[in-house]
Amino acid sequence: MNVQVLGAGHALPSRVLTNKELEKMVDTTHEWIVERSGILERRIIDEDKAASDLGFEAARMALDEAGVEPEELDLIIVATATPDMLFPATACIIQERLEAWNAAAFDLEAGCTGFVYALTVAEKFLLSQQYKYALVIGTEALSRIVDYTDRNTCVLFGDGAGAVVLGRGNTGSGIICTYLGADGRGGKHLNMPAGGSALPANPQTVKERLHFVKMNGNEIFKFATRITVEVSEKLFAMSGLGYKDIDFFIPHQANIRIIKTAMKRMNIPPEKTLINLDVFGNTSAACIPIALSMSNQEGRLHDGALILMVAFGAGLTYGGALLRWGRD
Ligand code: ACO
Q1: Which is it for strands 15-18 and 41-44: parallel, antiparallel or unpaired?
Q2: Any idea which residues carry the catalytic annotation?
Q3: pLDDT tens per residue across span 73-121
Q4: Contact 224, 256 (CB under 8 A)
Q5: CB under 8 Å to 74, separation ≥6 — which residues?
Q6: Above pLDDT 90, what percent of the chain?
C-alpha cells in the first residue's frame, strides 16, 4: 500500500510584474535580475484577494482531476508563510469555501519547504489508515510581505498556489519515501521580524518596515546548494534508487544558479528539470505543486515517471520526496 497523487491543480494571478517595472521601483536592472536569479517576471495577486483565494482555486482543480468530492476529504493541510491572517487557519477558510465539512484542517508553516512537509504529514495519516483522502495545498501571497523598496528581496518573490489530492493505492505508483530536516540556527537568515508575539505590530515596527521579509541571500544560497544535494542523497539511500533513475527533478524555485549548481553536482540534465522560476519567481511553498500540476496538464508526467522533489526554506527547513507518478 502506498499514497498516490490522485489529482493536481494550480492557480496563478493574471497580473504580471516584469523586471522592467521593478527597474522603476528600485535600483536594479532586468539584466542583473536575469543573470543573478534567472527570473524574468512574476505574478502578483489582485488587491482584493488573499492566499486562500488562490489555494481554493488550486484545490478545486485538484479535486476535479482526482474525481474526489469535497465531502470525501478527511484532511486539509495548507502550507503557507502568508496565511490570510494569523488565525483562523487558511486551511479552515478554504474548508468552508469547499464545503469539505468532514475534513480536519490546519496550516503548516515550514517556509518554502512547506509543501514537502505537508505532503509527508498527510502521507502518514493516510498510511495509518486513519484517513482516506487528503488535500495538500501550497499557497502564497508573498507580494503582501515583500518590501518593494528592498532590491535584495523584491525581485525574487511571486504569488501562486498548487494543490494535490492524495489517496491510497496498491500499484507501485505513489510516494516512495520522504525526508525532512531543520536547522533552527539559520532562522535568523530569513524572517519577518514583526507581527508575531515577539514583536507585535506597533507604529515603530511599521516605521522600521519590520513586517516585511528580511533575508541574508548569501547565507541562504550556500545552505541551499549544499542541502539540495544532501537531501537527494538521503532519499536515494532510503529508496535504493539513484540519479540515473530520475525522470523529473523538481527543485525549490529560488534561484536558477542554485538549481544549476545542484543539477551539475547530481548530474541531472536540464531536460529532466522542471523550472517555473523564470515566469513565476519564487512562490515558496507553492512552486513544487505548481510544477507538478502544470507538467501534468501539459502531458509531460507519464505513468511510472520517477520524480525527485527537493526544497529548502525559512527555518531553516529542508526536505524532499521521491514520487512514482500514476494512480490505480
Ligand atoms: N539589483 C541590482 N543589484 C542588486 C540587487 C538587485 N535586485 N540585489 C542585490 N544587489 C547588489 C547587492 O546590493 C550587492 O551590492 P554591493 O556589492 O554593492 O553590496 C551586489 O548586488 C551583490 O550582492 P550579492 O548578495 O552578492 O548578490 P548575489 O549574486 O549573491 O545574488 C541573491 C543575491 C539573488 C539574493 C542570491 O544570494 C540568492 O538567490 N540567494 C538565495 C535566496 C533564496 O533562495 N531565498 C529564499 C530561499 S527560502 C524561500 O524560498 C523562502
Answers
A1: antiparallel
A2: 112, 252, 282
A3: 999 999 999 999 999 999 999 999 999 999 999 999 999 999 999 999 9
A4: no
A5: 102, 103, 104, 125, 130, 131, 132, 133, 134
A6: 98
Give me the amino acid identity at 185.
R
At residue 277, the pLDDT reads 97
Q: CB of 102 closer than 6 A to ligand 1?
A: no
Please list, in sequence order, all residues whose beta carbon lies within 8 angstroms of the beta carbon of residue 34, skipping any fewer than 6 positions away: 19, 40
Q: Residue 18 is inside which H or E element, if any?
A: strand 15-18
What's the Cα-to-Cα distance from 225 to each of 100, 115, 291, 318, 320, rounded to whole Å? 39, 19, 20, 12, 14
Is residue 290 within 8 Å of residue 12, measured between CB atoms?
yes
Pairing of strands 15-18, 2-11: unpaired
Mutate to test the pocket of ligand 1, among 19, 33, 36, 156 (most ligand atoms within 8 A of CB): 36
Report yes or no: 277 and 304 within 8 Å, Cβ to Cβ.
no
User: Would you state the pLDDT for residue 172?
Assistant: 86
Site of grid cell 530536516: 181
Residue 314 has pLDDT above 90, yes or no: yes
Helices (H), 38-111: 51-66, 90-98
Enumerate the β-bridge partners of residue 249. Answer: 273, 308
